[in-house]
Design a protein that fits this description.
By secondary structure, this protein is an alpha/beta fold. The protein contains 17 helices and 13 strands. Helix 10 links the parallel strand 4 and strand 5. It is globular and about 65 Å long. The two termini are 37 Å apart. The structure holds uracil and calcium ion. Calcium ion binds next to helix 11. It holds the Pfam family Glycos_transf_3. Keywords: Glycosyltransferase, Metal-binding, Potassium, Transferase.
Length: 432
């Protein structure tokens, strides 16, 4: 087989065979196919698309290019959740102990990653002593005993995707549905998920800006799951503004604790119940979404979810008393309010700009060697649709530096205040 023929076939709009996709993915992963041919193929896929079979095969081959995590020693159905990425997204911190507390095993491999705030691992390190490096056996034992453990990614998962993603990044081929969908799904499948709940974000702070493209991405991933035999559901949720109020690592941990005690922000609580009840049904711990939702609400009210969170923190070397005393979590030296410049209704809270503002305070990483400050970030006091008076605080900046004028300006730039009230629904659509 010759790579030039594979490129030509796709260029002319024909579907590639399973053998051709295998030839490309394995050849590129091993270094037998050069970057220039891989980028030509990525560009033809960008323009010619792929059908469901091709997308499924592409995903399967990316999984096969590396290690696959074996979670078979863990009892029960392993259901994982994945978000396509937003600002101040505290969902995993709440979901993991919550669904674990009703018996769904959560064996999560998480990343640190780059971005506005740290990843789930960074956030968890807000607890004194928390250890993300459990050996394989302790990881499995923790999940079998207490249903939840979260560790750092180890092993060489989907090397073909890593290489192709880096190439797409510099060849203007990131924004292609078959390429994004196979990239995300291959990582989930390689990390051992048997069933998957996706949170596809849509809006100004998300990768997908409109419902149509978000639906298309969601359908593509659900269909790949079907093709590979891993049942997948997708919830399309709003990211026109940050989720919850907190943006920052320890700040989001505090928000997660509030949510686990039933005192969390309305939107975060609702999203967690929506995603969580789907996970509980897929994990076969309830037969209907309504029943699952009741179980989750009960777990919050009875403090069972909070107890599971404490056990999880303790199992991984963390100090569980910090869950009861969140004031002992990393706290910034300065709290500076940002007053509204006019009166009216909040109509915009541009998530990306608030994320960038948090990053300026030190909450996130620009390069992988940056050290993040767990204490800093931004806590909003208003969300879109809320009324505000001029001079009233719309947000508090938590900083370890005294001069936050530049950050203040960024926050003000992210906020629009208007006479007419608007609102966005939280859940736009569910695709199963
Ligand atoms: N996230 C991924 O993991 N892959 C993509 O291709 C795009 C976003
Ligand atoms: Ca948040």
């Amino acid at each position: 087989m010759r790579m030039v023929d594979v490129i030509e076939k796709k260029r002319d709009g024909h579907a590639l065979s399973a053998e051709e996709i295998e030839f490309f993915v394995q050849g590129y992963s091993k270094g037998d196919i050069p970057d220039y041919q891989a980028s030509a193929l990525a560009m033809t896929i960008f323009f010619q698309d792929m059908n469901d079979e091709e997308r499924g095969e592409l995903t399967r081959q990316m999984v096969l290019s590396g290690q696959e995590i074996d979670l078979s020693e863990i009892d029960g159905i392993k259901v994982d959740k994945h978000s396509t990425g937003g600002v101040g997204d505290t969902t995993t911190l709440v979901l993991a102990p919550l669904v674990a507390s009703v018996g769904v095993p959560v064996a999560k491999m998480s990343g640190r990653g780059l971005g506005h705030t740290g990843g789930t691992l960074d956030k968890l390190e807000s607890f004194e002593g928390f250890n993300i490096e459990l050996d394989q056996q302790s990881f499995i034992d923790c999940v079998n005993r207490d249903k939840v453990a979260v560790i750092g990614q180890s092993g060489d998962l989907t090397p073909a995707d890593k290489k192709l993603y880096a190439l797409r990044d510099v060849t203007a081929t990131v924004n292609s549905i078959p390429l994004i969908a196979s990239s995300i799904m291959s990582k989930k499948i390689a990390s051992g998920a048997e069933r998957i709940v996706l949170d596809v974000k849509v809006g100004k702070g998300a990768f997908m800006k409109d419902i149509e493209s978000a639906s298309e991405l969601a359908k593509a991933m659900v269909s790949i799951g079907q093709h590979i035999g891993r049942t997948t559901e997708a919830v399309i949720s709003d990211m026109n503004q940050p989720l919850g109020y907190a943006i920052g690592n320890a700040l989001e941990v505090k928000e997660a604790i509030d949510t686990l005690t039933g005192n969390g922000p309305e939107d975060l609580t609702e999203l967690v119940l929506e995603l969580g009840s789907r996970m509980v049904v897929l994990g076969e711990k309830a037969s209907t979404i309504e029943e699952a939702r009741e179980m989750l609400i009960e777990a919050i009210e009875s403090k069972k979810a909070l107890e599971t969170f404490k056990t999880f923190i303790k199992n991984q070397g963390g100090n569980p008393s910090q869950v009861d005393n969140p004031t002992t979590l990393p706290t910034a030296q300065y709290q500076i309010d940002v007053p509204a410049e006019s009166s009216g209704y909040i109509t915009e809270l541009i998530a990306n700009e608030l994320g960038v503002a948090s990053m300026h305070l030190g909450a996130g990483r620009a390069t992988k060697d940056d050290v993040i400050d767990l204490a800093v970030g931004i806590v909003l006091h208003k969300k879109i649709g809320d009324q505000v008076e001029a001079g009233e605080s719309i947000a508090t900046i938590h900083a370890n530096q005294q001069d936050v004028e530049a950050v203040k300006e960024k926050v003000l730039n992210a906020v629009k205040i208007n006479d007419e009230r608007i609102e966005y629904p939280l859940i736009h659509k569910v695709i199963t």
